[in-house]
Amino acid sequence: MIRLIPRLDIKSSHLIKGVKLEGLRKIGNPNEYARRYYEQGADELLYMDAVASLYGRNNLTEIIKETVKSVFIPITVGGGIRSVADAREILRSGADKVAINTAAVQRPDLINEMAKTFGEQCVVLSVEAIKQADGRWLAFTDNGREHTGLDVVEWVTQAVERGAGEILLTSVDHEGGRKGYDLDLVRAVTSAVNVPVIASGGMGEAMHGVDAVKAGADAIAMADILHYDRDAVGGIRQVCLDNGLEVRPPQAILEAAS
Question: Phi and psi dihedrals of 105, rounded to 5?
Fold first, then answer.
């Protein structure tokens, strides 16, 4: 079943959006948007602390505690999570899964530790990919600013072997550009691993999501298209259905909410 996942990038207490993870603009109250997307039929939510590197820790605990009072779908939280203890705090606040990037790059054993402690289904490897002149993609951290030297395909393969149960794959080149996902990147990663891959970065219209799924993605993350009301989760779901994708039908969403 293909999942439709609104992505909410957070700075302090504000929902924000940028282009190529830069030039961040305030959008509004994240809890209000989370509730809206839940009511529209989102399958999951993705919260990312966009400035966690400045604080050295994730600052979304209180936001998540508030969200889960009225939102009853799985929530993944990422940004600034550097230890099993950090992950435990986020999960206790109401999150279902934890996404890690910088800390996993710095100490890959953290993936093993988290998978052993919480189960592989809770561990999401977040990858910020930038295409190089030679056609490869390298992994970056800190909103695409810090070079890791890691080849994306090699890195995700290693991470899955260590226990990562899902990959959040963000194309920094395409993020915020509204021109579609990096389909070659999606194909390269989904061909290399046997865990679900969430395509993120570049959705400008519903058909872009269809394209990402046909390239191999198991889920599509979307932000700009929803935040600026250029489409709604329900409209995107209908386009997916019209193009033969296996997504939750609208009736199932109504029944789940009743």
Answer: -65, -45
- Which tokens go with 127? 């990858």
Whose tokens are 């889920």? That residue is: 219
Amino acid at 99: A
158 closest CA partner among 208, 105, 117, 198: 105
| pTM for this entry | 0.94
| Of 227, 210, 144, 155, residue with least CA distance to 188 | 155
Q: Where are the beta strands (DSSP E) in 12-107?
A: 14-19, 22-28, 45-49, 75-78, 97-100
Question: What is the rounded CA–CA span in Å between residue 210 and residue 202?
Answer: 13
**Secondary structure of the chain: what % helix, strand, coil (to 5)?**
40, 25, 35
* DSSP-assigned letters across all residues of 51-78: THHHHTS---HHHHHHHTTT--S-EEEE
Burial environment of residue 191 by CB neighbours within 10 A (0 to 12, 13 to 18, 19 or more): exposed
Q: Which residue has the higher pLDDT, 164 or 52?
A: 164
Known catalytic residues?
9, 128
CB 15, CB 26: distance < 8 Å: yes
Backbone angles phi, psi at 95, to 5 degrees: -70, 155
- What are the tens digits of pLDDT across the range 122-136? 999 999 999 999 999
